[in-house]
Design goal:
Blueprint lengths: L1 H12 L3 E7 L7 H19 L3 E3 L3 E4 L2 E8 L4 E8 L2 H6 L5 H17 L2 H8 L1 H34 L8 H22 L1 H15 L4 H19 L5 E7 L1 H16 L9 E7 L3 H5 L5 H11 L4 E7 L12 H4 L13 E4 L8 H7 L3 H5 L14 H6 L4 H4 L6
Length: 398
C-alpha cells in the first residue's frame, strides 16, 4: 500500500505533458532557425544532463505561432513547444541602412539624454548602462568625427592657397573609411543590433507601435484557450532578451482573461532569460509597463523566475525590477521574480570561455544554448525534462 502511494506521489511530481511558449529576443530570424537551434543544442547538452530529447518537425499552429513536439525518451514526458512570432514585425521596422538607423536613433537617444536614463541605469547595473551608452558613442561619435574631419579636409587646401576642390578626394576617403569602420564595430560589438533594438522597443513602450500590442492580445487569447483545454501538468512562458519585456503585458492580459491562471489547472511558470525590462521601464514613457510589472509580480498563480548572467551586458543582471522602479510589495507577499544567476564561466573550460566572453551576442544567447559543463541552469531540462519548475527550483514555490 505504501509502495503504491510512493509511486503515485512520484508520478504526480513527474511531468507527463508540458506546454511551452517561447518569445524570442529582437531577432529577425523566425521559428525555423529556433527549431534547428533547439534541436542542435539539446543534443549537445545530452551528455551533461542525460536527457535524450527527440525534437519533432516544425508545424504552423496558428496565424502567428509555429510549434514542434519534444519527447523525452525513456521517461514519457511530452512537451508541446510553441514559438510566438514577432519576427515579421521586427523585419518591418528594421532600418535598412545607416541613414535610416540614424534617423530612428536620434529621437530615442534624445529621450535617453533628457530622461537621465544612463546615470539612473548605472546605479543598478553599470554594464547595462555602458551597453546602452556605447552605441551612441560608437555610432554617432564616429560619424560626427568623420563630418569634422571631412570639413577640415575641404578647408585645408584653402589655407595653403589651393582650390577647395583639392579636398574632395580626402573628404570622400574619410567618409568611406568611417562607414567601413562603423560596420567593423557592428560585426565585433553588435552596435547596429543594439541600436535597432532600442529603436523599436522605445516607441513601443511609448504606445507608438500598436501592432505589437495587437500581437500580444492575440497571443493572450490563444494561450489562455490552450490552457483551459489542456491536460498538461505545467505551462511555461519563456521570454528571451527583448522578448522578456513583451511577456509582462502578455501575462497581465492573460490574467485578465483567466484570473485562475496557475491556480486552476496546470501550474504556470514565467521565465525571463537575459531580461532588459528595466532598460525600457526607466524611460519616462512606458507607464503601463511599470503597472504590468507590479500586476504580474503580485499574481499568486504566476511562478516568475528571472535568469541572468553577470557577464551579459545586454541585460540587467540580478536586479529586482520592482525595487528598481520604486514599486513596493505589500507585506507578506512572496518576492517575485525570483532572481537566479546564470554562471556562464562555470559552463565552459577557461580556454573556451575566454573566446565566448568577447562576443556580446554569443554571451546573450547562452541562455538557450548548451554548455560544456553542467550547472544548475539548464534550459533544456527546464523546458523538456521530467521535473516541474517548482520541483527544480523549490525555493521559488508560491
Amino acid at each position: 500500500m505504501e509502495e503504491g502511494s510512493d509511486s503515485q506521489e512520484q508520478s504526480g511530481k513527474r511531468v507527463n505533458k508540458r506546454l511551452v511558449f517561447y518569445f524570442s529576443g529582437f531577432d529577425p530570424r523566425g521559428p525555423s532557425h529556433y527549431q534547428k537551434l533547439y534541436s542542435a543544442e539539446s543534443k549537445l547538452q545530452e551528455p551533461l544532463n542525460g536527457l535524450s530529447l527527440k525534437v519533432g518537425k516544425r508545424r504552423k499552429t496558428s496565424d502567428h505561432t509555429h510549434g514542434w513536439d519534444i519527447k523525452l525518451e525513456g521517461a514519457g514526458t511530452k512537451t508541446e513547444y510553441e514559438f510566438l512570432r514577432w519576427d515579421d514585425l521586427i523585419r518591418k521596422y528594421w532600418p535598412k541602412n545607416e541613414w535610416e538607423l540614424m534617423k530612428a536613433a536620434i529621437p530615442v537617444y534624445w529621450n535617453v539624454l533628457v530622461s537621465n536614463h544612463v546615470p539612473r541605469l548605472y546605479k543598478v547595473s553599470w554594464s547595462a548602462a555602458f551597453t546602452i551608452a556605447y552605441p551612441i558613442i560608437a555610432f554617432f561619435g564616429l560619424f560626427l568625427a568623420a563630418a569634422i574631419l571631412g570639413i577640415a579636409a575641404m578647408v585645408l587646401p584653402l589655407a595653403f592657397g589651393q582650390a577647395w576642390w583639392w579636398g574632395i578626394l580626402p573628404a570622400v576617403a574619410i567618409g568611406y573609411g568611417s562607414l567601413h569602420l562603423s560596420r567593423y564595430l557592428d560585426r565585433k560589438f553588435r552596435t547596429y543590433w543594439l541600436l535597432r533594438t532600442y529603436c523599436m522597443l522605445h516607441p513601443w513602450g511609448g504606445g507608438k507601435l500598436p501592432e505589437i500590442d495587437q500581437r500580444i492580445e492575440e497571443f493572450a487569447g490563444y494561450i489562455v484557450d490552450k490552457i483551459k483545454n489542456t491536460d498538461a501538468d505545467e505551462v511555461l512562458l519563456a521570454g528571451h532578451s527583448a522578448g522578456s519585456v513583451l511577456t509582462v503585458p502578455l501575462v497581465r492580459r492573460m490574467l485578465e482573461l483567466y484570473p485562475g491562471l496557475g491556480k486552476k489547472g496546470p501550474e504556470f511558470g514565467l521565465l525571463s532569460l537575459g531580461n532588459c525590462q528595466i532598460i525600457l521601464s526607466f524611460f519616462p514613457g512606458p507607464k503601463q509597463l511599470r503597472k504590468d510589472l507590479e500586476t504580474v509580480a503580485l499574481a499568486d498563480g504566476v511562478q516568475w523566475l528571472d535568469f541572468s548572467a553577470k557577464r551579459d551586458g545586454a541585460c540587467v543582471s540580478m536586479v529586482d525590477p520592482l525595487e528598481a522602479n520604486g514599486i513596493k510589495r505589500p507585506n507578506g507577499v512572496a518576492v517575485r521574480p525570483q532572481l537566479h544567476p546564470v554562471r556562464i564561466v562555470k559552463m565552459f573550460s577557461p580556454e573556451r570561455y575566454a573566446v565566448i566572453k568577447k562576443d556580446i551576442f554569443r554571451v546573450h544567447f547562452q541562455y538557450v544554448m548548451a554548455g560544456e559543463m553542467l550547472t544548475d541552469y539548464d534550459f533544456f531540462a527546464i523546458t523538456a525534462g521530467p521535473q516541474k519548475l517548482s520541483e527544480r527550483f523549490p525555493q521559488s514555490l508560491i
